[in-house]
Design brief:
The structure is a homohexamer of 283-residue chains. The first copy, chain A, is of the alpha/beta class and 283 residues long. Chain A has helices spanning 4-15, 21-26, 48-58, 87-118, 136-145, 163-169, 172-182, 196-204, 217-234, 252-257, 267-270, and strands at 32-39, 43-44, 63-66, 73-74, 79-86, 124-126, 159-161, 189-193, 209-213, 240-244, 262-264, 277-282. Chain A is elongated and about 75 Å long.
């Protein structure tokens, strides 16, 4: 992953810009030992390679052994990994490793819960760009570990015409036409619509995908039927239908049942609670 | 704040490593306009200067006007800020600005709820080092905006002898003595204890502060009384008492009532849900 | 453009890591003056904003006035821009500004020559990833200034299944299926084919675009007819057809005449000769 | 070479800021294989260590075996190097490795052609500062691989008084005197002259080298004779004579025959066409 | 140590931005050899790991063998370390390694002389923030190698209320109170005083430490007695007493004799002469 | 100066990685004021632009007014500069600004003392590469401010064949010949010699400059006479003569009297004591 090492170095420097005054006082420089990472809560583990890298950057002699792999659902008390080597490095890396591991596992865990709800309906759960600044590639990886799929990674690798774009262009049609003149031929076009009228306009523009933004359950159902009829009537391929906005663990199954293809959920990355994990030195 | 500009530049690059293909297609290069940031939920706003910086790094001509200030409690629908300038910069900065603003406001909002619960008891709510990698200084600022206080910023500016240190040193006493020989004279010493026995040992070492880690409510009460009696009996100054572990909005008031000085809460930074905020272009 | 400022700073440091010993000896520190950029050859100008930035990074008081704009075809002797300010900054920036300007203008000029040849046939000329390391965004901009269009910017924003991928997967079909399971829904799929058999397989996979790699003129013509018949017969949409490999100013018109959609040309960026431009101090 | 690793990392990030979506979909994470680099054109190879580094930065387990060494003249079809290891790393590094290799080999190849022309006359071919921004040290290395010599590396390690300096100082003499007061004692002084008058003035200033800028063949011959006579007459050592401006493969031999010492050629680095090289996965 | 590698890389680049033209001309690329570091003067060695890192960054095959360890007092002529490997790397690293080694050993040597003087009195010698920009962590390490102790590392990890702060706040009391409301509970408070009046005010504020700034020997003695009496009279703990300003090797013993706890000496880092060390290639 | 801003940013971050806890507690965020920089010792001031930059990077509204200029000899008590603006920025920048200013002024002051001693003899005082890592360009500037001249800036911009090179090459002659084949034509050749025999060999190689390394006063005198006679006898130009090694304020005048051209002094940069300067806030 591009730049992962740089990110971890910055995180280590943030957590100990001038050394670890407690550990340097207590732990002899060459003392070595072993510590175990334990899940204190049920959940899906994610970020083991990041944690391993934290320790290897502090001391390239450290040994890291994984007891489970990323994407594994574990129960409370499960041993996740063992780390062995210089005790100072273990203690100095502890919090940084856990901060990554807990956040990524939190995201994977929450994603898994959404994915499980919609699994019977063949619908995919996708992430958004509502990720933590500087951690997007990691968080999108966590979503995949939880069973979700990724939406575009950035503003550079996917066209999504949103509310504000349409307002500036004046209409869905105008926005789509401008984009078609500009983007390279390997990018599809998706349009975010707020109303049935916009949905119709988008269909006529033959876009590749349509995002129903903040539609109620009834409106989603209506939209799905409308699009299916339109496709049959016109013989055009039916665009991919995505739903976003206000999706919760409570309503996601009902949304999936309407027949949309993709449900994107900002909560996965902007509001997933951390999974409780701890590191304990074995003496 | 050291390095804030660098962090924002990285975030912008992460969100558009090769430009914003949608916006560049739709919005004319020199078109300008105005957008408004609106709270879609009740909460405490935090991070306005960060959002302002996002836009000024994209275009140093952009004007930013704040309608509220950091730390303000706002109701749903409140206008938070207005941004004016080149539309392309507004759209390219939107998500990055919101990602910072929503996270920091989420932390400030959750902190405010904890602080409000304990306010009657003169107890302070503190953060921890369980922060998002690379965003610690910002998140600690958000805690202050919410009314909380900061714990140490890193391993370099405060001595906290934890579980693992004690295990390695062999005893609380040995750990404290080693640290006293090492750290400079402007740092206090805090010890994390798991049991009443360790608490007694820490008192005898005359440490400056004691952290009761994962104590039950009853154990906290017992500890507080024990420390008070010890102080009276010995004529020694009573060390500061901190509680951490398993603190929730439900039990924080009861903990505050026991007479401890400080309650530190990892949830403030590792599990605060984002505050819902949006940016709308005005046409 | 992300990181442009950083690139220019590196270029300036490369050209004067320890100052400009000639200029510092000869030109008084506060002497100011004016210089003019002149095209010594006919061609298409590109990179004026980069040159302007070179000087503004050396001295933010410098004034830069453009006499033409990027994309303009100029004749030999045309004044391109005037730069005014501290003479030391003018001389120290000269070579770096010219190195950018001459290369980008060289690319724009060569692109324009290709574009002019194919203009009557409604075919587009595209660039490739065969760009100068670290200068890709600039060079792709130069291609647009010359009238070309951009292909994908990187391995991250477009799926192009190439020779080596097919060999590893075992077949076109297998490669396409694997990619479809992996990529997000906003990316199209293009397959590079070497033979008519692979072309047929790609059509059956319903990919969005097909790249005819190193086909002879006759083979291209055959392929175009084959695809058209297949589309009529099956009622499927005809995929976009791209040609690449061995394209020259001599054969590009004939290729365009075959009815393909896109001709991509590595030469545009890897072998365009620099356009001759000079900077003269006016005394 | 200072900073080479940083440059390659930037190049890799430029070519895959968010991963290689095609390869990640098609090639299993742990699949390994072998690929061969083949010259598709006759020329001089240069940049093998750079290509090796590209792959080792992607995966430090990769094995790289060179079949020829930098500076070797190869014929079409020659195997240049074999790379073995994780297939994903091979594919992700392919284009970046080739972009370096093709450009540097292009420069070495063109340099060799110039050098061969002037070899019988004992004249050296030198490069200029007209190099690709950020790649100067590599490109100067390529010139050496082609048999050329390097001119100064930057504005910091050589004094070259040019046209613009003379205009600002008012005369060759004044410019030389100012520089002599300023530079350290390990730098020689070269002056660029446009006319015989300036040449005389430079001789009287006893500079170490003189650059005849854009002189015609006749003017060069006249200048060489003039300088020889002056040296005999005055008993002064004859300064080194350099020619630059308008040098081509067609006229370089005639220039060499005039008896100058050094011919510097901007074309070597700013306009050398890339050498065609490809990488093929062996299955 | 955070960022040490980055600092060494910058130092290497500073000393050879475009290679080592002498060594590259004289020493064959693959020639290897051995060199020895020798103290040319009596003193305390410090910085061996830094020197080792200099060479390992130039060539990771180089072997480094230490004959003494950091903190060792050596006599003139002592062999400090042996370095073996590629001769080019040895010569290119020589000056950078020595520049670090000589400076750090100079600091350790001077510190040792101060420490020796005060050893009989149980007083500690501390450094200050008057360190070389970018080298603070290294220089503070050198002070420890010389037997001194560190004062705070930065403005972030210790509260020291100085002259200018008191002037701005209006009084010692006001300054102390403001700081107490702001800083986290793990930081002590030290106040710098210029007069006995300020000393009294500081005592009443119950600060943890008091710095007597630029006091004469008599004034220091008076202050020590005053503080002792105050402590006895009030039953308060006696704050730590630090002296700073105008401390020299001549007067430091007399100061130590007054009974203060800590003497901080800017000279240790801002004016220590380098220790003379050389590297000799063994042929 | 390349990278000066980056160096100052690193220095500021080093001195306050997590803010200035004292100042932030005491000084209101928007309070502004004025401070004066005062020389506490007689000496030559150097580094005012660096100090100014320190403050402008902390707050671009700060005003900086210089009372003297770099290179001015000042007496104790002289006001050097006034800085006005936000008090927090003044206090946070104080130590960093002083650390630069005191070191650079210390170097300029010591250089001035050496220069004054040799002024009557027309001999120049030069610096060496024995500078503080990362601060070389600044320290070489300080030497110029003190009236000295610069030796080469790095291993890249001057050829100096030293002891170790000669030992590896086998002889002075062999070393010189190898270098001549390698370096570009704008670099002179200097050889460091330890004996009269080496001196003779160097003369026969017609090098441009000779460094008498660690010669006694008598040996220097003998060498100067020998070189003069050789020049007369052979009619060759006399190479520049440099002395280095063991030069002190006590013996420098005697060395200058021998008739050498250049005396280089490592002490100027590796052992100059800081000049005492302070910053006082005016209230």
């Amino acid at each position: 992953m591009n730049g992962l090492e740089a990110i971890i170095r910055q995180a280590l420097s943030e957590d100990a810009p001038m050394g670890d005054v407690t550990t340097e006082g207590i732990v002899p420089e060459h003392a070595s030992g072993k510590a175990v990472f334990i899940a204190k809560q049920e959940g899906v583990i994610c970020g083991l390679a990041v944690a391993a890298k934290v320790f290897s950057l502090l001391d390239n002699q450290i040994r890291w052994e994984e007891k489970v792999s990323d994407g594994t659902q574990v129960s409370e008390g499960t041993e996740i990994a063992i780390v062995q080597g210089r005790l100072r490095a273990l203690l100095q890396g502890e919090r940084v490793a856990l901060n990554f591991l807990q956040r990524l596992s939190g995201i994977a865990t929450l994603t898994r819960r959404f994915v499980t709800k919609v699994a019977p309906y063949g619908v995919r759960i996708a992430d958004t760009r509502k990720t933590t600044p500087l951690l997007r590639m990691l968080e999108k990886y966590a979503v995949r570990c939880g069973g979700g799929v990724n939406h575009r990674f950035s503003l550079s690798d996917g066209v999504l015409i949103k509310d504000n774009h349409i307002r500036i262009a004046g209409s869905v049609r105008e926005a789509v036409q401008r984009v078609l003149r500009h983007t390279h031929h390997l990018l599809r076009i998706e349009v975010e619509v707020q109303t049935l009228e916009q949905l119709k306009e988008a269909l006529e523009c033959k876009v590749d995908a349509i995002l129903l933004d903040n539609f109620s359950l009834d409106e989603i159902q209506t939209a799905v039927h409308f699009v299916q009829e339109w496709a049959q009537k016109t013989g055009q391929p039916r665009p991919l239908l995505e739903v976003s906005g206000g999706v919760t663990l409570e309503n996601v199954e009902a949304i999936a049942r309407t027949g949309v293809d993709l449900i994107s959920v900002g909560t996965l990355t902007h509001s997933a609670p951390a999974l409780d994990i701890s590191m304990e030195v074995l003496v």
